[in-house]
Design goal:
Elements: H1 17-20, H2 31-51, H3 56-59, H4 62-73, H5 97-113, H6 119-133, H7 140-154, H8 172-185, H9 190-197
Amino acid sequence: MSQPAAPSDEHATPLTPEEEAQLIPSFITTRDELNRAEQQGIADARRAVMKRSPDPDKLLTVTYLLALHRRMFGPVWKWAGKLRTTERNIGVEAWHIRTELQRLVDDARAWLQHESYPPDEIGVRLHHRLVAIHCFANGNGRHARLVADLLVVARGRPAFSWGAGDLAPAGQVRRSYIDALQQADQGDYAALATFARN
């Protein structure tokens, strides 16, 4: 591509040259073309999985979470649905990802079983932890938002609105989202819960 694949936003995950080389469509040469191709894959995946939202027992498995990422980004990236193997400026060390992802799945199942939190809060906590683990080379926030939507829909709630704006470009909506995630890093989920339903 003539422009770097990773967004220029300071909070975006940069791709390594090896990851950039795994771009599938040969027609993509600009960031706008990449964004459109990714967005199309995400929209197609969302329509397909939201038609029949999976039972939380199916959704809350490592296998399903990997398959969902592959479904979202597979038309664009060869590494879609594969756990990242390189270190990032965010997330757990690469060799901890599978363990942390399994721990999150187990925790979320327990939250549901014991009704530890209301469904929306479980969705927000699940989303936050997925982003914090940073399982994939890219697309972590978009994947985590769809996972949270699937979970709350399965619990009889409407999908989240996620600030009702475009989170891709650096702007006020994205800044509010990042701020809410950073508050959740400190254990305060109120801003993220508000943002999710705004």
